[in-house]
Amino acid sequence: MYFFDLHCDTITRLNTGERLEPGDRSLRRNGAHIDLERMEGLSWCQCFAVFMPDGLRGRAAIDYYEQSLRFFRTQLAENKDRIVQVRTADEILAAVKDGKCAALLTVEGGSVLAGEPSRAAELAADGVRMLTLTWNGENELGSGADMPGGLTPRGVKAVEACEDAGIIIDVSHLNDRGFGQMADLARRPFVASHSNARAVCNHRRNLTDEQFMRIVAAKGLVGLNFCTHFLSEEIADPPFSCLAAHIEHFLSLGGEQTLALGSDYDGTDVPSWLDPARKVEDLYQLVCGAFGQALANRLFFENALDFMKRYELAGEG
């Protein structure tokens, strides 16, 4: 089994020490959802997000990002026997075949640009491969799911700058107005890295059918989120059947080549049967049983890797 996860907050959680014991901040071994020792033996690509708080602006945002980047690089250096930073589809495949975690650096929150879309080129040089334009509040680029506005003029410019720099645009957390603007602007495939189906669970962070079909049409990617609140409105510890309902719904909309996984590990509460992250092996068996191994392989790895290849080719045109 190969596993490709489009979103986790593990680096930020370890960096801040949130809900962890003092000193429990190593990626190798910790009390968070993800650590390298418990994931040993898994062929695995992980998108590690630097979470940017909504309120940060200007130099404070840059400083926060740069400190987080240093922490990420330190963790990679201390665990180079088990993990390596990657940027391309070929590098991902080489790393997982070598038995290492393929680490893709992403950023959750457009405040990282400090209001300057041109900073996208600097992020790309750091190896950032994906940017979630907003979190739930507001930043210089636009409004998230909790706010009424859409993309700002700077947000429009940031979309273009990121695409030019080869940074994938992530629409998870954008509100509906911002999503529509982004989808109209996009010249390259884009993703919703950790979002589910609103028709199944009516949460504003989930995708409408129209939004999902726009991502399908753009040859984009949607990562299924393990967050309990996005899986079910009624069940506190949602069983596999709740996640399966989201899969079934997206498949009914033509999502066989669009669906992937975006766990949100270490950024939210997940069902007990998916905690810790190593339990994705159990999920794989459940998906195989319900939908067949071919679909499970697409969902767990192949669709995400194929997306990376498509995105790279789109940049060559």
Which descriptors apply to this entry?
317 residues; alpha/beta; TIM Barrel; 6-stranded parallel sheet; 3-stranded parallel sheet; 11 helices; 11 strands; globular; Metal_Hydrolase; Membrane dipeptidase (Peptidase family M19); metallodipeptidase activity; Pept_M19
Question: Would you mind describing this structure in some detail?
Answer:
With 317 residues, the chain is of the alpha/beta class. It has one domain (2-314): TIM Barrel. 40% of the residues lie in helices and 15% in strands. The protein has eleven helices and eleven strands. The strands form three sheets. Strands 1, 2, 3, 4, 5 and 8 form a six-stranded parallel beta sheet that branches. The chain has a three-stranded parallel beta sheet with strand order 9-10-11.
Task: Please specify the SSE layout and strand pairing.
Blueprint: E1 2-8, H1 10-16, E2 43-51, H2 58-78, E3 83-85, H3 89-97, E4 101-108, H4 120-126, E5 128-132, E6 138-139, E7 142-143, H5 153-165, E8 168-170, H6 176-185, E9 191-192, H7 209-217, E10 221-224, H8 228-231, H9 240-252, E11 259-261, H10 280-291, H11 293-314
Parallel strand pairs: 1-2, 2-4, 3-4, 4-5, 5-8, 9-10, 10-11
Antiparallel strand pairs: 6-7
Helix pairs in contact: 10-11
InterPro entries: Metal_Hydrolase (IPR032466), Pept_M19 (IPR008257)
GO molecular function: metallodipeptidase activity
Protein name: Membrane dipeptidase (Peptidase family M19)
Decide which structural class fits the backbone.
Answer: alpha/beta
Mean pLDDT comes to 97
Into which percent range does the helicity of residues fall?
40-55%
As a percent range, the share of strand residues is 15-25%
Rg, rounded, reads: 18 Å
How can the largest sheet be summarized? Answer: 6 strands, parallel
Unreliable parts: none
CATH-defined topology: TIM Barrel
Assigned CATH superfamily: Metal-dependent hydrolases
CATH C-level: Alpha Beta
By CATH, the architecture is named Alpha-Beta Barrel
Total individual domains: 1
User: Rough shape?
Assistant: globular
Cα separation of the termini: 33 Å
Question: How many individual β-strands?
Answer: 11
Please report the number of helical segments: 11
The H/E string reads EHEHEHEHEEEHEHEHEHHEHH
GO molecular function: metallodipeptidase activity
Protein name: Membrane dipeptidase (Peptidase family M19)
Pfam families: Peptidase_M19
GO biological process, one term: proteolysis
